[in-house]
Amino acid sequence: MTTKTYAALLRGINVGGHRKLPMADLRALLTELGYGDVRTHLQSGNAVFTSEVTDETALAAEVGRAIEARFGFAVDVLVRDHAYLKAVADACPFPVASLEAKQLNVTYFDGPVTARDFAKVEVTRFLPEEFRLGDRALYLYAPDGLGRSKLADALARTGTGVATTRNWNTVLKLVELTEA
């Protein structure tokens, strides 16, 4: 059986001293689950591993259950393979070459999102910030960065399911790390 390389994207860990999850402990946990070539990137919940399992939803659920059992708190987890991560990066509708990485973010969702999901957000109120939708992803252009983005706050209140955001540098690094 062949293995695939995946990225596990954990939501909301190691932020402001809450839900602390040291990356060394995460690597150990993923290794104990039987995943191979386990690596982490940054402290914000990005792990890369190989597995023979091809069901991303099942992998995400297993990682989430293991984290809750070991560390005592629930964490939303999305698992995506290299092909998906690369397709999302390649499909960016914004002029990547002319932007700073801090100005561009991708929010990954656990399922499809449509314009209807965000219809109540009055986007013109937030200009020059903008967003575009992709395959289970939202691209956000925030000229002053995510931390100062009012549009990001409005988008987050739409209740569109499990979602987690990564800046453009991390988006590209995850593509690189999952490349076979």
| Discrete helix count | 5
The largest pleated sheet is described as:
4 strands, antiparallel
Instruction: Please give the radius of gyration in angstroms.
Output: 16 Å
How would you spell out the order of helices and strands? Answer: EHEEHEHEEEHEH
- Which sequence of strands runs across the widest sheet? 2-3-1-4
How much of the residues is beta strand, in percent?
A: 25-35%
Helix content: 25-40%
Structural category is: alpha+beta
Report on the structure:
It is a single chain. The protein has 180 residues and is an alpha+beta fold. Helices cover 29% and strands 25% of the residues. The protein has helices at 23-32, 56-71, 82-90, 150-156, 168-178, and strands at residues 4-10, 36-41, 46-51, 77-81, 104-109, 130-134, 137-141, 163-167. The strands form 2 sheets. The chain has a 4-stranded antiparallel sheet, sandwiched between helices. Helix 3 packs antiparallel against helix 5. The chain is globular, with a radius of gyration of 16 Å. The two termini are 16 Å apart.
